[in-house]
């Protein structure tokens, strides 16, 4: 059986108009081609913004150079129903070689079972019954509903990637969000960063459009503004991936909580730091309304 590897958001929401290629003229990007349920479409634009996630077609077609930072894990993503008597908070379970996270989505648990990179074949070969049993063992209160995982199509393989483009732009084209810098799920910061990129791009580019058009310097200014918070956050994610996640996945005995987690438990004041980093990031952005708007 083959598994579709999808972006977190794509797992639930495939695009209606699927961009398949860039339109170019004289070394400049001037639009995109897309496939829609009604047929093919060409859209021309002064600026194409690639915001199509970590498997970005726009990025691939633009031929922009990527720096791959690596990720030791992939994620199996599934839903299990939530009962009123279940705990409220997000739950995480760690055991030898295993990480299981449950996110409270009111009427269901969004569950993430973390596996070593490329490890899906191993899990699949062990069989669905063994997978269900593993989840019930890690989260006993889910034992009465692991049967909701009726076949493998109820479980999505999400490939984790951490990378960034050396240059986020070409004449007529700008990449933002995961298309410019794919984020790991660690910390749940990728959506914030993608939105902050969009706000920064709008703040910098909207006035230039009003003044008659944008040039390469304006696109460069967007990258300059957003590159530092991206690099800093990816450095934190790669540190956590290698020092915590990778070690847990390799462990054969129940691991002790890693040092950063122990420190957070000992000094509650320190807990404000990750909360601030996750909530606001290294460089918060605010929408700037132009005068008279
Ligand atoms: C397993 C996993 C769990 C994660 N969990 C979290 C989390 O809890 N919180 C968090 O903040 N971050 C999380 N992240 C990271 C987060 O998903 C990304 O950093 C974030 O979604 C990036 O936003 P984006 O808008 O750039 O891309 P995406 O959210 O991926 O959005 C891209 C959009 O483009 C569309 N698209 C793709 N290709 C095309 C095409 N060819 N034509 C037209 N449209 C297209 C897609 O349908 C999608 O709507 C997780 C990542 C992974 C791998």
Describe this structure in words.
The chain is an alpha+beta fold. 33% of the residues lie in helices and 24% in strands. It contains 7 helices and 13 strands. It has helices spanning 57-62, 120-126, 128-138, 190-210, 216-250, 259-266, 272-280; strands at residues 18-25, 28-36, 39-44, 48-50, 66-68, 73-81, 91-95, 98-104, 108-116, 156-159, 163-165, 169-170, 173-175. The strands form 4 sheets. It has a 5-stranded antiparallel β-sheet with strand order 7-8-9-6-10. A 3-stranded antiparallel β-sheet has the order 1-2-3. A hairpin with a 2-residue loop joins strand 12 and strand 13. The longest helix has 35 residues, at 216-250. It is globular, with a radius of gyration of 21 Å. Mean pLDDT is 89; it is low at 1-12. The chain binds flavin-adenine dinucleotide.
